[in-house]
Structure formats: structure tokens, C-alpha cells
Amino acid sequence: MSDSRSTAHNTETIARPPTRDELAEIRALLMTDANMERFLDKLFGSSRWTYDMEQDVWIVTDSVHVGPGRGYIVMRRGGDWSTLRSRD
């Protein structure tokens, strides 16, 4: 009687970093409001973000921020982002 666990192999694939062309394609996709919002929904959860029309950025509360104040992630079209902290 054979034990299938002893013959199992790890078939996980390690993802390679995207090429410059692939990054350019991703950034181009994130230039539209609909694609950016879909991306944010998948990354942070459905409608957990706010759009600031005046600054043309999407703002998300940083759920892993530790310390005084509140942490935020600010994303621009194309996927550029930065973090901010308020001094509440």
C-alpha cells in the first residue's frame, strides 16, 4: 500500500517580477477610473477607498499603520502611491 503523501511534490510556481513592458501595460490599464477602482476594490476591499476629485487621487485608510495618528495610502492614476500620516 503506497502513501500518496510521500510521493507528492510541491508544484507551486514562484512568480517572476514583471518586465518593463508588462509594468507599462499595467500602468496604462490603471489610467482609467473604472480600472483603477476595480483594482482598489480587489486590493483593499469593495469601496474601502475614497476619490478626491480636487487632487485626482484615491485615498485608502492604511489598515497596518501603527503609532500615533492615522495612516493613509494615496494612489494616483497609473498606480503610483505614497503613504501619509495625520496627527489626530
The percent of residues in helical segments reads 25-40%
Give the SSE string: HHHEEEE
Beta-strand share of residues? 15-25%
For the biggest sheet, the summary is:
4 strands, antiparallel
The number of helical segments is: 3
Find the structural class using helix and strand composition.
alpha+beta
Low-confidence stretches: none
Spatial sequence of strands, sheet with the most strands: 1-2-3-4
Mean pLDDT: 83
SSE inventory with pairings:
Layout: H1 4-7, H2 20-29, H3 33-44, E1 49-52, E2 57-61, E3 70-75, E4 81-86
Antiparallel strand pairs: 1-2, 2-3, 3-4
Structure in a nutshell:
By secondary structure, this protein is of the alpha+beta class. It has helices at 4-7, 20-29, 33-44; strands spanning 49-52, 57-61, 70-75, 81-86.
Describe the structure.
The structure is a single chain. This protein is of the alpha+beta class. Helices cover 30% and strands 24% of the residues. The chain is built from 3 helices and 4 strands; from the N terminus they run H-H-H-E-E-E-E. It has a 4-stranded antiparallel β-sheet, covered by helices on one side. It is globular and about 45 Å long. The N and C termini lie far apart (65 Å).
Give the tags.
alpha+beta, four-stranded antiparallel beta sheet, 3 helices, 4 strands
